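Lecture 7 notes. Example A: sequence first, then its structure tokens.
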Amino acid sequence: MIKIKGVSKEFKQKKIKIQALRAVSMEIRRLEFFGIVGASGSGKSTLLKLINGLDDLTAGEILIDGDSLKDINKKERRRKIQTIGMIFQQFNLLQNLTVRQNVGLPLKVQGKKNPQKVKEMLAFVGMEEHINNYPSQLSGGQKQRVAIARALTTAPSILLCDEPTSALDEHNGHEVMKLLKKTQEEFGTTIVFVSHELELIKQWCNRAAILEEGRLLAIVDVSKNQVVNSETSYYQKAMDYLT
């Protein structure tokens, strides 16, 4: 489904080079609930943006269903990117649009109108009663549900989730995770879930990649029976907890 081969990303800030990712390689399987975990600044969000075509690689390549994003033409690249949905930590809803308009926005960008699809996705996330509300009238958990509905209107085969629960309380965070699992099971969506919270990775993911300072340190099959030792490094803590 997703092959990441020797991917590096370099930024420049005031003539200083910052290596956000360093020769990262991994494969994310179809229908997987795959976690990417690491401390702040480890390169998690940068990697998601590269997968979604929101930023350009410095080196390496990313293949989606066998197609390299850097080798296909602009039209085909756009079509490929449209098979990928994304949800964010801060919801990214447009405040001047209603819930209906926010959820229908990806379809509008593609030149499509499908009001029935919008209603179906809002029903799927349990937000159909709020279809005419504005984001300012919603709680944080409700906003994230709307963001998920928006991401699903184009029927993506891959859903990238960038810290989607970090702005929520424990209850709403758990409800969002259940909704992501439901999305995977009912729509056959591959979920790529970025978080610094080891508990969420352990509870919901099949496998997880551990990043540290832009490097891939390990990919682990997630198990359910270890305890975090908070005195160790983040990498060792993750390995102890997830394996």
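Example B, a different protein, same format:
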Amino acid sequence: AVDNLSLNFYEGNITSLLGHNGAGKTTTISILTGLFPTSSGTIFVYGKDIRTDQEVIRKNMGVCMQHNVLFNYLTTKEHLLLYGYIKVPHCSKQELYQEVKRTLKETGLYSHRHKLAGTLSGGMKRKLSIAIALLGGSRVVILDEPTTGVDPCSRRSIWEIISKNKKGRTIILSTHHLDEAEVLSDRIAFLEHGGLKCCGSPFYLKETFGDGYHLTLTKKKECDTAAVTSLIQSYLPEAYLKEDIGGELVYVLP
């Protein structure tokens, strides 16, 4: 649940909603996109009230949900054409094809444009979901854990795509990776139990609440986490393992 949450988001900025599982990130995203109604309060998007102007708001909004909403038997290009026809029906066929081509190139999917979505890797599927969200000049782009389930290399490639496309857009993303929020964000909002704990730029938050340096390691399948931890602590006894998620280990160093 979300409890008395008040936040401002700014055009040209990336704002990250950061918090552990159950902190209220996905619920907040669902309310922002109109999937869940508010029990009280409201949301204004470029002056439009989500309670009364939801259809107008959605025309300027792109969404990448936590789980890919793709069709296995459509190609990458066909996905963008399909969503493009739905999202910007007023565009001519030529304009839409040019927009799709540009989006494919910007997201690194152009060489995969004729591949079926069902044959794409996890990282490519996430890129396609993000490309759909960016399509049609979306002024508000909402990304719910955009790097979920991807390898570290694809993760950094997705970061680059998001950063390159923030001009003229208001981008809101949710994540539980501190390094992701720090790299991408102009502002970070920490959520806990559905409420806002603190909000500010990464520099401000580190200066105010920082607890040391973070060491991020990419691990292989045969990685012995205990041995790595022991090695680090032999040099820095106060260091400790903070995250062991997917293909990465994150240590806090004093």
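Note on Example B: The mean pLDDT is 91. Residues 208 and 250 are 21 Å apart (CA to CA).
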